[in-house]
Design a protein that fits this description.
By secondary structure, the chain is an all-alpha fold. It has one domain. It is built from eight helices and no strands. The longest helix is centred in the middle third of the chain and has 24 residues.
């Protein structure tokens, strides 16, 4: 299936699966960092991923379609597999997410940037999904530790890049 997605077809099945797993892992890391992964945070993450099947640059739409189709299965599978306590669970998730760095390096600069930027936005939006007044002040101190996904090497926007420009516009729309 991934071999049909332009820009990802040179990855191994394991590498593609690592990227597909990332949104579920990010959701668990951020939303569960305070010890409670509530339904609002899960649902918000899933909605955000679904919007990316048509709201992102074309190169990433198909990737996010695959992600959104199996998001709940991945999320529930990892929740059942990982320890319940954030102190025990988070290092495992960090290790899994760190495996993304060499994969991003194998992708085109535009796709790598789009994925990295999308993962960071997912972390931010997941943190804001629950709590606070009108999502203001909703980021807990535990979530704030992980919101920038420090285990991932930042991917700069390519110099002249329509994908990066579109991602910025999408990010602005998501914040409104």
């Amino acid at each position: 299936m991934w071999t049909l997605i332009e820009g990802f077809n040179h990855l191994t099945a394991e590498e593609f699966d690592t990227l597909v797993d990332a949104p579920a892992l990010i959701t668990i890391l951020i939303a569960g960092s305070d010890g409670e992964l509530d339904q609002e945070e899960r649902t918000w993450s899933e909605r955000l991923l679904r919007s990316r099947t048509y709201n992102t640059p074309k190169d990433l739409n198909e990737f996010y379609r695959v992600v959104s189709e199996i998001f709940w299965v991945k999320l529930n599978g990892y929740m059942n597999e990982f320890p319940e306590e954030p102190a025990a669970r988070n290092p495992i998730i960090v290790e899994h997410l760190a495996r993304i760095n060499p994969i991003l390096a194998k992708l085109s600069p535009e796709i790598a940037y789009g994925l990295y930027h999308g993962f960071v936005k997912l972390a931010e939006e997941t943190a804001k999904a629950s709590g606070g007044f009108l999502r203001i002040g909703a980021i807990s101190p535990e979530e704030a530790l992980w919101i920038d996904l420090p285990m991932l090497t930042p991917v700069p926007a390519p110099a002249s890049n329509a994908l990066a420009d579109t991602n910025e516009e999408t990010a602005d729309e998501d914040e409104d």
